[in-house]
Design a protein that fits this description.
Blueprint (H helix, E strand, L loop, with lengths): L24 H11 L4 E5 L2 E4 H16 L8 E5 L5 H11 L3 E4 L6 H11 L1 E7 L3 H7 L7 E5 L7 H14 L12 E2 H9 L13 E6 L9 E5 H15 L10 E3 L6 H13 L4 E3 L6 H8 L6 E4 L1 H8 L14 E4 L6 H11 L3 E6 L6 E4 L13 E2 L4 E5 L12 E6 L6 E2 L3 H7 E2 L2 E10 L5 E6 L4 E3 L2 E3 L1 H9 L4 E11 L3 E10 L6 H9 L10 E4 L13 H6 L1
Helix pairs in contact: 1-2, 2-3, 2-7, 4-5, 8-9, 11-12
C-alpha cells in the first residue's frame, strides 16, 4: 500500500533511518558511557549506579566470560527480575561478543530446559530464588557455567546482608537447590576485574539476542535478533522520541521485566542511548510499593501494559503523585483500553500513547506521535523505514478502511527462528513478516488493531473481535478488567462469553449483559458472564485468553 502515513510525520522525523549508523549495540553503549559517565544509569531498591560504574562492572563481566573458556557467539542466559545485576550481565555479555538469551524467571523446569537446550546456552546468570528450577534440568542442557546472584547483591554492604537474610530466612523465598559447580556472580566480577578484556569485532549480522516467543501456542521459538535489527529499531524509535526527549535529563520508570522485548528495547537500551536513568521496579505486582517508589523520584517517562496502568489507577495514593514532569506514557504489549487511557489522561494530564510491536520485529512497528492531544484508539503510524500492508486470506491487499492481516517489512524484522527454517519460511515471505494481527488503516495512515487472528470468535458466520467486547465491558464503572472468549454452541458455532473481575459484588451477570447490549450489535453481546477474582496473565500482564478457553 502507499505510505500515506508519511504525509502526517512530524517534520523532524526522517522518512528513513540508517540501520548501519552503528555497527553494534556495543558501539551505542560505548558512546553513551563516554558522554554520560557521571549520570545515573540504573536505580533499584534505593541503590543507584552511574554510567561509569556500569561501564566498569559490565567490562569486568565481559572479561570474566572471555577468560572462562567461552568464545564470541556463544549464548549466555539471564534469568532474573528487574535488578541492577540485569544490565550489568546484559552489557557484559554483549561486550564479550556473545548472545543474550533472556529467560522468564517464572518458567517451569520443562520450559527452562527447552529454552536452554534449544539456544545451546553455555552459561547462565540466575537469581538464586529460581535456582531450584535450574537444578532439576541442568543435566539435560549444555550449560557449563552457572553464576548465582542474590536479590540484594548490588546494594550497599549493610543493606545487602539484611536484604539477602530477609529473602532467604524470613520470607523463605529461596527453595533448596543442588548446583555444586555454581559460582557467585559478585565473585565473577571480582575475577574479571583482574583479567584482560579484549574488545571483539562485532558486526551488524552477529546475533545480539535469542528472544523467545511466549509459547502460548505450541513450543516457544527463539527469534534471532541481530545487532543490526536492534540498532535499526533503536534508531527508528529514538528519532520519533527526540522531539520531546532531553538527552541526559529524563527519568524513565521500568516496571515491565527487562527480559521482555518491550522493556528491553523501550527502556533498557533506549535510555542508555539517551544517557538517562532507569528506575527498575523488581515487583510491580506490589502496587502500593510501586506507588510509594514512584513518589520518591521526578519521573518523566513511564512504559507499561494496559493492566499495569489500570492497576496504578486503582491503587490508593497514585492520583496524589506529582505528574508535573511526566512527558511520555507509552503503552504496548497488549491493547490499551479507552477507559484506562481516558482515566490516565484525566489523572496525570498526560496522553497515554499506544504503540505496537512483536518480538520478531525487535519489537516496535508502529507508535503514536508524542505530541498527540488525546487518545485515538490507534496503534499509531509505522516507524521510519517500515512498510505495512493489510491482506485478506488469499494474500491480496484489502481496500482502504477494510480489515486485513498486517504484514510488516523493515530492517527491524528478525533474521528468523533458531533451528526452525520451516517456521521462518511460514512467518516471513519475500521479506514480509506475517503478524497474525488483524488491522485497519485510516486515510491519515493511522493503524488500528482489530484483534488477534487466533482469538477471533465466529458467531453464526460473523467475526467477533474480543478487544471490542472487552473495551465495552471496561466502560462499566464496576468492572476492573475483562476478557472475551468464544464458547462452542450447537446453533451459532460459538457464543461470546465474558470473564470479568468486578469492583462491586452487587454487579450481576444480567447487569453487565444489559450494559453491553447498549453498545454492541446483537451477535456481539455476551451470552454468558463469569465473575472471577483475577484474570490469568503473562509475565508482562497480557491477559491470557487461551487459558480461559482451556478452562
Amino acid at each position: 500500500m502507499e505510505k500515506i502515513w508519511l504525509k502526517n510525520y512530524d517534520p523532524k522525523v526522517p522518512v528513513d533511518i540508517d540501520p548501519d549508523r552503528y555497527s553494534s549495540i556495543v558501539d551505542i553503549f560505548e558512546q553513551s558511557i563516554e558522554k554520560y559517565s557521571s549520570n545515573v544509569s540504573y536505580i533499584n531498591m534505593g541503590k543507584s549506579i552511574t554510567f561509569a560504574q556500569l561501564d566498569q562492572l559490565s567490562r569486568d563481566f565481559a572479561a570474566y566470560l572471555q577468560n572462562s573458556g567461552l568464545k564470541k557467539g556463544d549464548s549466555v542466559a539471564i534469568m532474573m527480575p528487574n535488578l541492577i545485576q540485569y544490565p550489568v550481565a546484559l552489557f557484559g555479555i554483549l561486550r564479550a561478543g556473545m548472545t543474550v538469551v533472556n529467560v522468564n524467571p517464572l518458567y517451569t523446569a520443562r520450559e527452562l530446559q527447552h529454552q536452554l537446550f534449544d539456544s545451546n546456552a553455555k552459561a547462565i546468570v540466575i537469581v538464586e530464588n529460581f535456582a531450584s528450577t535450574l537444578s532439576q534440568v541442568i543435566e539435560n542442557t549444555v550449560v557449563e557455567k552457572v553464576l548465582l546472584t542474590s536479590i540484594g547483591d548490588m546494594l550497599s554492604p549493610l543493606k545487602r546482608v539484611a536484604t539477602n537474610f530477609v529473602v532467604k530466612h524470613v520470607k523463605r523465598m529461596v527453595p533448596s537447590f543442588d548446583l555444586p559447580k555454581a559460582e557467585k556472580f559478585n565473585e565473577a566480577l571480582k575475577q574479571g576485574h583482574k583479567q584482560v578484556y579484549q574488545r571483539p569485532n562485532i558486526h551488524g549480522e552477529d546475533l545480539a539476542f535469542l528472544q523467545y516467543t511466549g509459547g502460548t501456542t505450541g513450543v516457544s521459538k527463539g527469534a534471532m535478533l541481530t545487532h543490526r535489527n536492534i540498532v535499526a529499531n533503536l534508531e527508528q524509535t529514538s528519532n520519533i522520541l527526540e522531539s520531546v526527549i532531553d538527552f541526559g535529563k529524563e527519568f524513565a520508570v521500568t516496571a515491565l521485566p527487562l527480559y521482555h522485548i518491550f522493556a528491553l528495547q523501550s527502556n533498557c537500551l533506549t535510555f542508555v542511548k539517551f544517557g538517562c536513568p532507569n528506575l527498575l521496579i523488581t515487583n510491580p505486582r506490589d502496587m502500593p510499593g510501586f506507588v510509594a517508589e514512584l513518589g520518591k523520584y521526578p519521573f518523566t517517562v513511564i512504559t507499561g501494559v494496559n493492566t499495569l496502568f489500570n492497576g496504578l489507577l486503582n491503587t490508593p495514593g497514585f492520583a496524589e503523585l506529582d505528574f508535573g514532569r511526566l512527558k511520555v506514557s507509552l503503552g504496548g504489549g497488549a491493547a490499551v483500553q479507552k477507559s484506562v487511557a481516558e482515566q490516565w489522561h484525566q489523572i496525570t494530564g498526560n496522553v497515554l500513547l499506544e504503540g505496537y510491536g512483536l518480538t520478531e520485529c525487535s519489537p516496535v512497528v508502529t507508535v503514536n506521535p508524542p505530541h498527540l492531544e488525546a487518545y485515538k484508539g490507534s496503534i499509531g503510524m509505522p516507524v521510519p523505514s517500515t512498510d505495512i500492508k493489510l491482506v485478506d486470506e488469499e494474500g491480496n491487499e484489502v481496500p482502504m478502511g477494510e480489515a486485513g492481516e498486517m504484514l510488516v517489512k523493515g530492517p527491524q524484522v528478525m533474521k528468523g527462528y533458531l533451528n526452525r527454517p520451516e517456521a521462518t519460511e511460514e512467518m516471513i515471505v519475500d521479506g514480509w513478516l506475517a503478524t497474525g494481527d488483524i488491522a485497519t488503516c485510516d486515510p491519515q495512515g493511522y493503524f488500528y488493531i482489530v484483534d488477534r487472528k487466533k482469538d477471533m470468535i465466529l458467531v453464526s458466520g460473523f467475526n467477533v473481535f474480543p478487544n471490542e467486547i472487552e473495551e465495552v465491558a471496561a466502560m462499566h464503572s464496576d468492572v476492573v478488567e475483562a476478557a472475551a472468549i468464544g464458547e462452542e454452541h450447537q446453533v451459532s458455532g460459538e457464543i461470546v462469553k465474558l470473564v470479568a473481575v468486578r469492583r462491586n459484588d452487587e454487579l450481576s451477570e444480567n447487569d453487565l449483559i444489559e450494559h453491553c447490549r447498549q453498545h454492541l450489535t446483537g451477535y456481539k453481546v455476551p451470552k454468558k458472564v463469569e465473575f472471577i477474582d483475577e484474570l490469568p496473565k503473562s509475565n508482562v500482564g497480557k491477559i491470557l485468553r487461551r487459558e480461559l478457553r482451556d478452562k
